[in-house]
Amino acid sequence: MIEELKNICEEGSEEEQQILELALKSIRQRRERKSAFLSGFLGLQGEFVDERTYRFEIPLTVFMHNSGGAVHGGILATLIDSVMGSLINRSLPPEEYAVTTELKINYLRPGKGEKLRAEATFLHRGQTLVVMEGSVYDDRNKRIAHGTGTFIVLKRS
């Protein structure tokens, strides 16, 4: 494996080297923040816009592209699910957490450009079930995907 990594570093394409760089970033972020590897690959770092809205702004990387050069639909679904999950989980007390029970995505246009913005808000907040919505925008502020999700609130054991 080390020889193959050396070969990619020395002779690999720019895209291959970017993927290796993202993998290293993902490992570092996992070690430092205990986050999922996917969070590191996507560069997920969020912020509250207000008490009901959470946002990610991320660079669009080669990891996110489908074979047509646009953002892969699975990446858009992951961004929407992640931003909604981050909002609900950051709003819960430490003894509770939430997980996705249902996710619906509408793909509106191809994702292209230099960066993406994902935002989530609450639609309904019950004791056990929370319904949320999220959208992903390109760097021209065009909505490229929209989704809704239902999350169940659970107690930590």
UniProtKB/TrEMBL annotation:
Ranges where the Thioesterase domain occurs: 68-143
Fetch the InterPro entries from UniProt. ACOT13 (IPR039298), HotDog_dom_sf (IPR029069), PAAI_dom (IPR003736), Thioestr_dom (IPR006683)
TM annotation in the entry: none
**Which keywords are on file for this protein?**
Hydrolase
| Entry annotated with the keyword Hydrolase | yes
Pfam families given in the database record: 4HBT
Which Gene3D superfamilies is this protein grouped with?
Answer: Hotdog Thioesterase
Protein family according to the UniProt entry: Belongs to the thioesterase PaaI family.
Protein name (record): Thioesterase domain-containing protein
Q: Which organism is it from?
A: Brevibacillus choshinensis
**Upper lineage:** Bacteria, Bacillati, Bacillota, Bacilli, Bacillales
